[in-house]
Every structure is written in C-alpha cells, then in structure tokens.
Amino acid sequence: MMMEEKKSYKRWIGLVAVSLGVFMSLLDVTVVNVALPTIQRSFNASFSNLQWVINAYTMVYAVVLLLMSKLGDMFGRKKIFMISMIIFTVASGLNAISSNMEMLNVFRGLQAIGGSGMMSLSMAITASNFQGKERGAALGILSSIIGLSTAIGPLVGGYLVQAFSWRAIFTVNLPIGIVALILTAVFVDQGKQWPSKGKIDWLGIILSSLTVFGLILGLINKEGHYDWSWTNFQVGGYMALAVVALILFIIWENKNKAPMMDLAIFKKPTFTGAVIASFMLGAGLYAFYAYLTILMQNYIGYTALQTGTRQLLISGFALILGPIAGILSSKISKKWMISISLLIIAAGLLVMEHQITPTVTFAALWPAFILIGIGGATVNPPMTNAALEEVEPRHLGMASGILNVLRQFGVSFGIVFLGLRLTGGYRDSLTTNLPKLHLPQQAADGIHTALFKGGPFAGNEILQSPRAAAFRAMPGFADLKHTVFTAFDHGFTSVLFAGAAMLIIGAIAAAILIKDSAKGTEATKQ
C-alpha cells in the first residue's frame, strides 16, 4: 500500500514536470505577439522581418512535431522529452541575448524544435504513466494546460514587457526549464516502450516536412500579400508542392515496412473524428485569439496587460473545468461532450458578433468571453481521450503527435483564413464608405493609400500617427475615424462568422465519427 501511494505521488509530480514543459512550448506561440512592437523598435525592423519572429517558430514547430514523436517511440519518450526540454531552454537563453533580427529568428526556430518535442510526447508520457480514472484526470489537467497556455500568452507577455523588457519573455523560461528538467529526470517514469528496430524513415520525414512546409509557407505568403492570386507561384506553387508531397507520403508510408506513420490509424473513425475536431478548434478558436487581441489593443485601446487581464475570463475556466471534464470524459459520452463544447464556443463567437460596434468595450464582451471560456475548457480533455482510447499502446506517441500537428495546422490555417476574411471585409467597407466622406481629392488619395497599405491591423494607428496630424485637423476627421472603425468591425464580424462556422463543422464531424467505446480507455491500459 505504501509503495502504491509512493508511486501515485511520484506520478503526479511527474505530471507537473510534463505540464511545465507543455506550458512553455505553447506559451511561446502566443506570448511573443504583444512584444512585437517593442522588438521592432529595438532592432528597427521592418514589418515583414518582424513577422518571422512568429513564423520561424510556427513553421519549424509544425514541421518537426511528428519527427520528434517518432523519435520518442524509437528511442524512449522520456529521453527525447528531456533532450527537447534542454534544447528549448538553451534556445530561450539565446533568444534573450540576440543582437539582431537574424539571430532572433534562427534561435526561434531552434526553440521550436525543443517545443515541438515536449508537446508531441507529453500526452503519450501522461497516458503511459496513469491508468483508469487517474488517466482521465491527468489528461484533463494536461489538456487544460494546453488551453490555458494558448489563451494566457497575451497576459504573460504584456506583464513581462511592461515590467521588464521583451527579452524577459525568453529569460523567464530558463528557471522554469531547469526546474522542469530536474522534476522530469526524478519523477517521470520511462513507461513501457515499443522501440522500432528498423531504420529511421528518412523519406517519410522529408515528404511529411515538405507537406507541412509547403502548406504553411504558401498560406503565410497569401496572408502577407492579400492581392496575390491563389495561383501565384509563391502561394499556389508552395501549396501544390504540399499536395504532391502529401500524395507521395501516403504512397510511401503504405508501402514502407517500417513507416514513420501507420496510416491504418485513420481507419478508426473515432480517431479521425477527434483529429478533425482538433483541427477546427485550432482554426476557429485558437487562431481567433490573435484577432481578438488586435480588437482590444488597437481599436478599443487597452494596453497589452489590460488585454491579457480581461482575457483571463476566457482562459481561467481551463484550470477549473479542465480536470473535471477529464474525469467526466471517462464516464459519459465523449462525442457529445466534444460536440456540445464546440457549439458553446461557436455560440460565444456569435454572441460577440451582435455586440461589435465602433464604441464596443469589455462591458459588452464579457458574456461571450464566458461562453468561449466554458467551451474551450471542456473540449480538450474528451478530445484527447477519444483520440487515444482506441489506439494501440505502441502508437500513443504517434497518435498524440498527429492530434497536435492537426491542431497546429488548424491554427496556421485559421490565422490566414480569418486574416483574409478580416482584410476582405475591411477593404470592402472602406471602398464603399470612404467616397461618401467627400474629402479633398489629394487628402482622399493619401488616406486611401495609407489605410489600404497598412491594412486592418494598422487602421487606427495610422490615424493617430504624427504623419496624420493634418488629417486630424480636418473638420471631418471624426467621420473618417468612424469609417475606419466601422471597416474593422465589418471585417471582424466576418472573422466571427467564419470561426463559428468552422467550429460547427468540427462539432458535426465529432457527432458523426466519434464512437463511444464500451471499453472506455481499456485499449490504452496495456
């Protein structure tokens, strides 16, 4: 009895270690957003160069996620997890001492390798270290950390930048990484392994990387150049490369005796349903957070810290409801928990759509925040359990890796797709309403060029810039400002409708494909 209690105590401390690693890896996806203006001033960087501070992390993170998962299955999940944590922590320190944008972007890519390793192996380690009801609670806690780290990024980043400097968002990872590494070494069990004795599937790795790289880079190029056609070589060309690489990957993996990914896993409708729901969650909700932050900072006028504090009304539910949802997911229908949670989030976005006006404040947004927070907190635990419950134990690492890759794919796709909806609505509204202001032709041309070139992110900042002093002196400036705010709102409501639509699609897919197994989580107890 004493021995069993000791093992249980050790498992939960091990979960703390794994959760710290996951928290750091996902936090760095969003925490940098609020620091970008400060980094730009520090290095006098152009906006296109500044974007790579985010893109370098996102692209490398998605590209190597499955590889790190496979290496964990081959050589030991705990070992690869600890190596990933060391890479992430060292890279964080290198980011903090970067002296130019090139160094920062390279070290961000290195940091992403470590982050993806920790993320891809975290669920498999947790699933193999816990059994029965404890597994549901543990996965619920881990899933809550995933949701919390994504949502809380603006708050953490805003505080660190305001209290210290942008370098603090990286240096804070050093003590956390060291503590997490020690806890992992001492308290995380290696668990049963099914090491692959074959060679590493290098062709599979290359083809899967080309698929991810081509798709993400094509979408990023489209996002950064709204006027480019989808058939533009730098958009359509990269995406065509992704499609060709994906086809070759599927052919190769089906023929390979020791594939990087056992595609037979997708024959399980429950796993496929969970993966689709995960993709739509990333695209419809997690990608949306970036645009919510733009609304709150650039148009409502909150500081980074004020924005993050208010968004706690969304993220705070993850800590309270996540573990409860994890326990419930082993007792009640997972598919309905997932579907209803996604519909609650969609309802929150639609409630917010009704409140958006040029003078909106947090006082009108908080009911929508509560709905989004409840749905976001309760969707991840049953989704994770559903994805892993029918998977063979030796494929746990690969299954969790696929789930996370698709979620990250969803975020990348959602940021571009929602961004295109925002820009399209913004431009359409300006095109219709600017001529109605009857501004002097020279002023109208200058305003039109500046607003269209700056895009919806910079609309209000352009009006407040020193160069716009002459515009602010015009009698019709209040009408001009209202027109710009209305244009952003038009685009933002399009974002809300698109996000809600993707979440509803995810809910339908979950309801149709996910089957509640009578075994519960028996398949993963072995």
Question: How is this structure best described in words?
Answer:
- With 526 residues, the protein is mainly α.
- Among the domains are: 1-191, Growth Hormone, Chain: A; 201-259; 426-489, no CATH class.
- It is built from 19 helices and no strands.
Residue share in β-strands:
under 5%
Helix content: over 70%
Rg (CA only): 23 Å
Number of helices: 19
Helix/strand order: HHHHHHHHHHHHHHHHHHH
Shape category: globular
Structural class: mainly alpha
The overall pLDDT, averaged over residues, is: 81
Q: Name the CATH architecture of one domain.
A: Up-down Bundle
Q: Report the biggest beta sheet as strand number plus sense, adding barrel if it closes.
A: none
CATH top level class name of one domain: Mainly Alpha
What's the CATH H-level superfamily name of one domain? MFS general substrate transporter like domains
The CA-CA distance between the termini, in Å, is 22 Å
Low-pLDDT regions:
520-526
Number of strands: 0
Fill in the CATH topology of one domain: Growth Hormone, Chain: A
Task: Give a topology summary.
Layout: H1 2-30, H2 36-43, H3 47-75, H4 77-96, H5 101-129, H6 132-163, H7 168-171, H8 173-187, H9 202-224, H10 233-255, H11 269-286, H12 288-300, H13 304-328, H14 334-355, H15 362-389, H16 396-433, H17 441-464, H18 469-472, H19 477-513
Helix pairs in contact: 1-5, 1-6, 1-8, 3-4, 3-5, 3-9, 3-16, 4-5, 4-8, 5-6, 5-16, 6-13, 6-15, 9-10, 9-16, 11-14, 11-15, 11-16, 11-19, 12-19, 13-15, 14-15, 14-19, 16-17, 16-19, 17-19
